[in-house]
Design a protein that fits this description.
Layout (H helix, E strand, L loop, with lengths): L2 H8 L2 H11 L1 H4 L11 E2 H8 L3 H13 L3 E6 L2 E6 L1 H14 L1
Antiparallel strand pairs: 1-3, 2-3
Helix pairs in contact: 1-5
Keywords: DNA-binding, Transcription, Transcription regulation
GO molecular function: DNA binding; DNA-binding transcription factor activity
Pfam families: HTH_5 (PF01022)
């Protein structure tokens, strides 16, 4: 677990917002055509943020480097979902360490 990378990723409010949306994809991305069990299409995350695609890509890359999300390529599209195991391990570490 990369504690410093996780803290850095979580320091940005938009990254925390993206994690929140991915926690409940059926609520925030219900209109996605593909099954949400695969993850959420990067294009839908882009659209929801209202930010430039390159900015959202940088946020997603930071979350992925920290291990908080995973990606899966399906055809030409990339789908993202939370890495619940890593998030739980981080929260457990924080609860025990502080």
């Amino acid at each position: 677990m990369q504690i410093d990378a996780i803290h850095k990723a979580l320091a940005n409010p938009m990254r925390r917002q993206i994690l929140g949306w991915l926690k409940e994809p059926h609520v925030h991305f219900a209109h996605q055509v593909h099954n949400l069990d695969v993850g959420v299409c990067a294009g839908l995350i882009d659209a929801r943020t209202g930010l430039a695609q390159s900015t959202v890509s940088a946020h997603l890359a930071a979350l992925q480097r920290a291990g908080l999300i995973t990606s899966r390529k399906v055809g030409q599209w990339i789908y993202y979902k939370r890495n619940e195991e890593a998030i739980k391990a981080f929260l457990d570490h924080m609860n025990e360490g502080l």
